[in-house]
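Feature request, filed as a ticket because there's no other form

It would be nice if the structure record came with a short human-readable summary line next to the tokens. Right now we just get the raw output. Example of a typical job, pasted below so the devs can see what we mean:
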Amino acid sequence: MEITSYSGFLTKDGHFRLVGEVKNNEAINITNVRIKIELFDSNDNLIRTEEQGIELAVLLSGRKSPFAFMTTNETEATLIENYNVELIGYEQSFEEKAQKLEIIWHAQGNVSIYGRIDNTGFEESHFTRVLATFYDENREVIEVSVSQIIFSLSPADYYIFEIFFSKDIAEKARWYSLTAESQEYTIKKEIESSFITNSESGSSTDIYYIFGILIGFSA
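Raw output as currently delivered:
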């Protein structure tokens, strides 16, 4: 297991937000991943320590999962100058989540990424979420966003999801990835796509992908 990258920033609301990504480079499936976050002031004095999990409950071999942390204490947030993230534990998962969630198509608009996710399994999929991780030009994680929760998705059924991003992300992002998980299933294939800026595509243009392959633009 490794932490591939992470970054922290002050939000427009005055909160401190830290986002990142872990990768399972083991030959086994992993669960109960725990990370430790340390926040420091300009003199490297420790302000706060937090331990938490990642976004995905089960991480298949070779797969990645984002994580996110935020403090809403505005006084504390203004003091944070440095931070550190450390992997502190994980366990082998003996639960083999079937790869029955599939993103059939997705599109990037001016303020969101939206698309269709299918349940290709034989069981109901509960509490399904689609997660987007955004990367800058250096492939460093700069934001993590999540779709609405799909409380119940029947076999052979689909749902149109939407994940919003800020204007700041629209200016900085160069790539993004999509993954998904429910109580019963995980995604069939992670999706990675280039993030097309407004200057590249036109300010009112949506960019469409089918099975992760760019197929065209639509005004």
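Something like this underneath would help us a lot:
The radius of gyration is 18 Å.
The longest strand covers residues 30-40.
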